[in-house]
Design a protein that fits this description.
By secondary structure, the protein is α/β, with parallel strands linked by helices. Helices cover about 25% and strands about 10% of the residues. It starts with a helix and ends in a 7-residue tail after the last strand.
């Protein structure tokens, strides 16, 4: 929840509790949340106990399962297929779980999943480059400096669409920091 969304919810009559420093990694300060009308709370357990709706970025940790309150609603990425223990904890406490990744727009798109997919795609370039280092068992090839197109191999699970666009270098990673595109040579339609 951003301070802007917090302000909108407060204007509609909601009481918003934000865990101390929860927004720091996203660049939001406690002062911004206070100015938006939220109460800053140092105890996550108190927030879980006092709230009918919990909004999180990621699924609850196993250590948070005991904090789930019967009848509570939880709005977050849940990834239940990969977390049967979480699914059981939600069922046991009769939690209404609304998974960001399953919210579907009328046009069939997944608007809450899209930004995370963009982030994952961009991180894939960084992660791939990291593991290409020879000291990590990679080929040692510096792809950002390669003048030739490269063969891209990828795999995914879940709901995915085959890439039909060129592999793109992130800005500043190509020759002379200019960024460039490489032809997709991975085959397929």
């Amino acid at each position: 929840m951003t301070p802007s969304l917090c302000r909108s919810c407060v204007a509609l009559g909601a009481r918003i509790l934000i865990e101390k420093s929860a927004g720091m990694s996203a660049g939001f300060t406690d002062a911004e949340y206070r100015a938006a009308g939220a109460r800053i709370e140092s105890s996550a357990a108190r927030i879980w106990a006092a709230s009918d709706l919990i909004v999180k970025v990621k699924e609850p940790l196993a250590s948070e399962y005991a904090l789930l309150k019967k009848g509570q609603a939880l709005f977050t990425y849940l990834h239940l297929a990969a977390g049967p223990e979480l699914a059981q904890a939600l069922l046991k406490r009769r939690i209404l779980g609304i998974a960001y990744e399953t919210v579907e727009a009328t046009d069939g798109s997944f608007p809450l999943l899209k930004p995370m997919s963009h982030i994952a795609g961009r991180l894939a370039i960084q992660t791939g480059a990291y593991f290409l280092q020879s000291q990590l068992g990679g080929s040692g090839v510096l792809r950002a400096a390669s003048p030739e197109p490269f063969r891209a191999t990828s795999s995914s699970s879940g709901r995915a669409t085959r890439a039909r666009t060129p592999c793109r270098w992130p800005p500043g990673s190509g020759p002379s920091g200019a960024g460039r595109s490489a032809r997709w040579t991975g085959g397929g339609p």
